[in-house]
Amino acid sequence: MSEQKIIFSNNPDELMSLDINLHGGVFVIVCESGKMQIEHEGSTNFLEQDDLIVCNPEFLVGHYMRTADFVAKAAFVTASALDDIQYACMRDVDCYWDKAKFIEQHPIIHINEEQKDLLNALAVLISAFAKKKQSRQLSRMYELLGHIASLIVFSWVDEHVLYEEQRQQAFAKRKDLLLHQFLVLLQETRGTEREVSWYASRLNITPKYLSVITLNKFGKTAMQLIQQTACQEIKRLLLETNDSIKEVSYAMNFSSSTFFSKYVHRHFGLPPHRLRRREKQ
Q1: Within 10 A of 239 (CB to CB), how many other CB atoms are there?
Q2: Are the beta carbons of 145 and 126 closer than 8 angstroms?
Q3: Is this model's pTM higher than 0.85 or not?
């Protein structure tokens, strides 16, 4: 080998300050303690204990802070080594480009003790081969170990993708459950409660989140759905009962007939008595 293609360090800062060409390579960092905060393209990422990150230099350089107790093991894979590994992985990894894209979008993967020990063992072997006298056979062994390490990481990506899919499915089910519970509350109250916060508090979510999920599902905000329900119930009471305007106002939980009349006029363009007359014609 004419160059050391994979460089190891116990200090990520040291790797970034080395006189090497970072372009086209990737950093691999395993956090052993503490925390690293990475700001990149408007998003905040946290690398915590037993987290593994695989990312290009642009993701890290100048964009991170770390706690005083941050300890990590790091490696930099040069562009030439990455080309060799990528060529081998394209042959041996199913859906390679999809998984590579997943790593790019989800650069942090949590690993367990067994996985961390396996990476450490491979790092020791790769480092040992890198220091030996150059030969074609040793160079091939060096490349194979890098390839093996990559295959192991890709196998963890498979597990992580499955976890993400399951998490997203569970998240979707939770949203559907929240929407169902919201609609049940609307049906029960029939618009007598007209504040989004009232429903959100009973669902243990924020009013903003409730509006987001209703807008995504129904194309209407939570407030629009509440107002729609209230207006339907008001029309029903005015049309199907002989209750006075004051009684309808009370049934709809308005503090006064005046507020009720203003609400009806705002949503129907008519005061309650004229709305009743029009609907009964």
Answers
A1: 12
A2: yes
A3: no
